[in-house]
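Quick start: read one record
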Amino acid sequence: MGATLTVSRKDMNGLGISNLANGSSAQDAATKSQVDTAETNAKSRANHTGTQLASTISDFDTQVRSSRLDQMTAPSGPVAFNAQRATGVADPSSAQDAATKAYVDAQLAGVASGQTLKGDVRAAVATNVTISAPGTTLDGVTAVSGELFLLTGQSTPTENGPYVFNGAAVAMTRALNWNTDPEAVRGSYWVVREGSKADEFALLTNDTAITLGTTTPTFTFIAAQSGAVNGYTTTCPSTSGGATWTVTHNLATKFVVAQVARVASPYDIVDVRIERTTTNTLSVLPDVALSSGEFEIMVYKVA
């Protein structure tokens, strides 16, 4: 039977205690082996439980940012891009893939047939224009910044096409609906408002696909029939959403085609309800308010 030593405290005078058995209860002395094993187990992440804040892990952000998106869990809801573009996207190969702009442009160009209205131009210029500094007068009209002009007689023929006038000493730029190859659709045509070709249609007559800067775009002009007035344009007044913008074209027929377009960049044609109210008037019914001069309507007599 072992003896029990009862003391309150013992000074070992810097000496170690050796040949101890491993402690088995809370108040037993622990051996070095027990302490070392406990420390090793405590450091092992496999034995960790509970929550550790990401901010306490020094390389957490670096490690997450090095992971590929395809390694992440798939989203279970909409993903917002904060009004940013997704770039470097491959063309789609299945029905639910995202489509690139190039793919959409190519598809639209592929189904385009016959004639495609590209809008109107202020004038068509049959003589050479210095695109880098066009001056102030084009085909007899005083150009205003932001207006479109159709260049058809360039000394470098591949430069032909519709351009935006940006100032007398500022380089003209290709129209926004004519600055990529898929947008240079065969059968494109424009309405010429003023100048030597006023009230005529300019029709692109190339039979093959256009490569901008390489292909020479060629145009033919179609005059109004029998001297009759076949076209009309005007800009909008201030109109509240749900109100009516009455357009008096005086073409004496309900057989007209009308389109509403923005007068400044991006010069796009917009969808809006148009009613052929009488033989001389149209009713434009916008869903949203229009500012004075913000949009123009182009009306064309077809019969």
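DSSP finds three helices and 17 strands in the chain.
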